[in-house]
Each structure stands twice: as C-alpha cells, then as structure tokens.
C-alpha cells in the first residue's frame, strides 16, 4: 500500500514509548553538556556549540511528548488484536490496521518487527527478525479476490533482491492454486484467512476468535466466498459465490 512520508515524531510514536524517553535524554545531554564542552580552534564553531544549551530543554521536551502517544498507540494495537473475533472483523479493518494486526501478532511470537517504510509500492510491509533470520512480509487484505501467482512471483523476486531468509504473504482471503503451486518448495509461506485467524487466536491474551469451516461449493468443491452484488435488483446485498468464478458460477 502507498505510504506517506514518515516524520521523525511519527516514527517515535510507532516505536515503544521508552525509545522517546531515551532519545530525549540523549538529545538533552548532547546539547546541554557534550557539545558545549568541545573546544576547537574556530571561535564560530565554539559559539555554535555553546548556543545549543539554550534550545536543549525545549527540543528534549518536544521529543519526550511522543512517549505518551507511543504508549497509547501500543495499547491500541494490543486491544485491536485481542478484540478480533472472526474473519469478517479482520476484513473490516482499514488496510493500515490490517498490517498493524499482523505486526502485533508476530511481535507476540517474539519477533522484532519493523513496520512499513520499504517503498511506495508497499512491496514489503513488515520485516521480522529472530535468531539472525530475516523474514519479509507482504499483507494483502483482499476480501473477495484471490491472490494470484503474479503476486507470489513478484515477492519471490523481492526476497531474492533483499537476500532475506523467508517471505510471508498474508491475505484475509485466499490464494489461487497456481500461486500455491509456485510457492511450493520455495522459502515463501502463504497464509490465507483461516490460517491468519489461527495465528491471531494463538497470540490473543484471551482467545476470542471463532474459526469457521469454509463453505464449500457443491458443484466444484471450491470455496464459497462472500461477495456484494454491484448491480441488479439485489445491488448492495451480500451473497456467497464460488471462488472459481467464472469457471463455476454457483451462488447462494
């Protein structure tokens, strides 16, 4: 997904609260004590270093303001994960919240998670690190459309370019059989809606998720997915259609 440019304060808000405290303290010590104590042969440089004493408390205080917001942001992400109940609540999330949900789930599994900031096309949404292994994650919150093989091929190229150990593609929907076949035998893991729910359920403080068995098409044994009619007398109403459409046009 496209991302806006991240400011320094926004970055601090996304990080643990103690990072803001540490950066604030470091900035104050550097500006109020370290730089003014440096003596050079240039009087202008010395004057500039001495001048840092004046804005030091203000800049440190501004950085410190990010700490409570970071704490609230961390709490919000935790609540967001712990209140998920089924695949529909996951699909109702905004795409950015969907990425946060996935990030928080892996964070609770002991991964060091870096969110976003890898490019305007969103090729990499998360970076996971554990035991010196690097895993890249792409989040696809596709509700009615299957993730095709082209996406998996593209991410395999990204995996190779970044020399990572593993790549995970996560969707709240499903993957085409071609995508599944292409990923087989490669360091690529495909996590669909049911697997994502199982992941969320495993890390919730008090498991809330209801994992439902997917509806099966009686004609071709494909999965029935929920769709919304876009036109006709039933426009706006939801129905179940076969995921193998247009080869199979079964609905209910």
From TrEMBL:
KW Membrane (keyword) present: yes
GO biological process: DNA restriction-modification system; DNA topological change
Gene3D superfamilies in alphabetical order: 3.40.1350.10
Record-annotated membrane-spanning stretches: 12-35, 47-72
Protein name as annotated: Restriction system protein
Keywords of this entry: Membrane, Transmembrane, Transmembrane helix
Database matches in Pfam families: Mrr_cat, Zn_ribbon_Top1
Source organism per UniProt: Marisediminitalea aggregata
